[in-house]
Amino acid sequence: MPGVKVGAQVRRYCMTGNYVVVGNGCAAMEGIKAARENGYKGSICLVSDLLQPSYNPMLVTYFASGKIDYDMMFPYGNNLDFYQEHDVKLYLGSPVVNLDAEEKSVETAKGFKVYYDKCLVATGSSPVIPPSFHNISDYVYTLRTIDDAVRFRKLLNGEKKKVLVVGASMVGIKAVEALIDKGFDVCLVDFAKYIFPMIAHKNCSLLIQDILEKKDVRLRFGTAVERIEEDDNKVTAYFTDEGPCETADCIIMCAGVKSNMSFLDPEQVELDRGIIVNEYMETSCPDLYAAGDVAQGRDIMTGEQRIIGLWSNGRYQGRTAGMNMAGKRMKYHGTLPHNITHFLEHDFIGIGNILNGDDMYEEIDEENNRYACFVWKDKKLIGINLLNIPEISGLLKNFIVKGLVTKPTADLSALANDNLAMNKMYNKYPRLEKKFLEMR
Ligand SMILES: Cc1cc2nc3c(=O)[nH]c(=O)nc-3n(C[C@H](O)[C@H](O)[C@H](O)COP(=O)(O)OP(=O)(O)OC[C@H]3O[C@@H](n4cnc5c(N)ncnc54)[C@H](O)[C@@H]3O)c2cc1C
Q1: Domains of the chain from N-terminus onward
Q2: Which of 7, 9, 42, 29 is nearest to 327 (CA)?
C-alpha cells in the first residue's frame, strides 16, 4: 500500500521524519487531521505499539458484551484508509522505548530510530495493576485494548463464574454491568467508602449502590485487597478490613490508570502524573507536544493541571496540538471533569466538583431512583449530580460535550439561564428555581 509501512517490516535504520506522532488513539488521530487541515504538507510518521488501527477504548465493554460489532470499535475505520488519506507513514507493533528530546529522536523496541522536527506524544494510559497481582496475571483481566476486549468477551461467553471487580470506577461499573447481564456472580470492591467517590455526592452514591445490590452485586467498600492467594484454579482475596475473604475465578482490574510515558526522560521533559502541557499542548521541550490521557492539562473549574481522562478532552487536546504544530496558534483552555454514564438502564451525570461546595440543593427520590444535586461555592455553581433525570440530561450532555469544550467557562450557571429544560426542572422542583434566584 503506498505511503504505509507496517512495523513487522522495520529493520534497524534511521530516517528523518518532519512530524512524528507516538500513539494511535483519538488524540493522535485528531492531531494528524488538524495538522493536515491547517496546511501541513510535510511527512507524518505514526509509531504505535499495537497492530490494530486506531480504536476507542471506551467501547471495549460494549464489544465484549455483544452490544456492538468488532468494527464499531474503530471510529476512524477498521482499515488503513485514514492513514493513506492523510499521507501517514505507519509503524504498527512498534512500542516506543525512548524519546530523546535534545536529539529530537524517537526509538522503538526494535531499534528503529526516527528523528523529528516536531513530535506529538499521544500514548494514552494503561490500567494500574498493583504488584501483589503480578504473580496471578492469568487470572487478572484489564479493559483497555482490543486484546482485552476479545479476552473479556470470551470470559463473558464462557462458563458463568465468580468474579471480583476491583475499582468502583466508571470502567468498573461497565464491567459489573456486562458481568451481571450474563449471569455472573459479582463482588465489587473499592478502597473508597462509596461508589464514584470523586464525582458523586454520597447520597447519590448510596442510591447507585442500592441499584447494584438489588442486582445481587456484593459490595465491599472502604477496604482494599491486602494479598491474593492462588489455589485450585481460583484466587482468594484477603482484605484490609475485618470482613471475610473473597474467592473468585478471576479478577477485573478497574482501579485507575497511569500515563504511558516511561519512554520520556524526566530530566528533559517536565512530568508529573502526566506530561505537563500548556494551553497550546506544548511540553517543556521545544517542538514536543502531548495530548490526551498522557497529558496533564487544565481543569477549568479549579485551574489545576491534571489528567482528565475523557474522550472529548483527548480529541480537543489532539486537535489543538496538531493546529499548533502546523503553525496556527490556537489555545485549548481546558475542560471540566465530567462523567456521563449509562448503566443497567440508569443514567448518571456528574459534573465538576460536588465535594467542596458551601451550599447545595438536593432532591432524593428513593422510590424511583432519581436524584438531583446542585452545589455552589461563593455563589458559583461548581458541581452537578443527576441520576435518572431525563428532563435535563440531554441538555446537559449537549452543554458539556459541545458547548463547554469550545466555549469554556468555569461557571456552570450559564446552564440555568432561560432554557426549556431548566424550566421543566423548575416545574418539577419549584424550590430549585428559588435556589438559583438566591444564588444570582
Ligand atoms: C473501559 C473504558 C471506558 C471509558 N469510558 C469513557 C466514557 O464513558 N467517556 C469518556 O469520555 N471517556 C471514557 N474512557 C476514556 C477514553 O477512552 C480515553 O480518555 C481516550 O481514549 C483517550 O484517548 P488517547 O488518544 O489519549 O489515548 P488511547 O486511546 O489510550 O490511545 C493511546 C495510544 O497510544 C499507544 N501507545 C501506548 N504506549 C505506547 C508506546 N510506548 N509506543 C507507541 N504507542 C503507544 C496505544 O496503543 C494507543 O494506540 C473510557 C476508557 C475505558 C478504558
Answers
A1: 7-126+259-325 (3.50.50.60), 129-255 (3.50.50.60), 338-438 (3.30.390.30)
A2: 42
